[in-house]
Amino acid sequence: MGARSVDRKWFKARLEAVELSQRQLAFKLGIDPSAMARLLKGERALGTGEAVKVAGLLGCSLEDVLLAAGVDVAAATGGVGDVKIVGVVGEGFSVAWGRPKTGPKLAPALVGLGVGVAVEALRIETAGTRFDSMDGGLVYFARGEGVDPGAVGKLAVVEIASGGAGSKAKGLAVVRTLKKGYSRGRWNLFSISGELMESDVEVSGARIVVLLKL
Hints:
By secondary structure, this protein is of the alpha+beta class. The chain has 2 domains: 8-71, 434 Repressor (Amino-terminal Domain) (Orthogonal Bundle); 86-97 and 115-214, Ribbon (Umud Fragment, subunit A), CATH 2.10.109. Helices cover 21% and strands 33% of the residues. Strands 1, 2, 3, 4, 5, 6, 7, 8 and 9 form a 9-stranded mixed sheet that branches. A hairpin with a 5-residue loop joins strand 1 and strand 2. Helix 2 (22-29) crosses helix 3 (33-40) and helix 4 crosses helix 5. The two termini are 27 Å apart. The relative contact order is 0.15. The model has no long low-confidence stretch (mean pLDDT 83).
């Protein structure tokens, strides 16, 4: 597969605007500087969770970051058939399951995922919050049961079976980055901006987010 067409001038300008170096950006993303160099050369794909963090760090929209990283945002949707919207993402990126009461009940299909990859969608309703710019967007995630091993370290739709000490997170579904917790079989969950939100929780399900479309 050939290298992606990355707009390196755009990234350089945004980094200068926020007074960050390429190495500092890599550090804040938790990746090796060599991985960042390959990303900017188009030799490494930018993950969804990484793109969200970059947008926050560079003070721009997620779509701008994806476009500059060589992701064809427009071509990502528009395949044959529609995707069911099975819930709503609200404040704190918590998930309320169920078909939306208002607005479209279907999302445009994704293309290029390969045979056998089934997805569902959540609609983002974050008007009036710090994620106001994402309001009306869509979270596409892989359908499945249990914890998808591929979701570890990635942005995912996570169902919390039980919380850590003093936690009231039991039974919640949230959009988080999933990382190993402090106890065996438990997980730490981070917000899309990289903040630790739930610590050492038991997870009953985690399905990887394949696309955030704003």
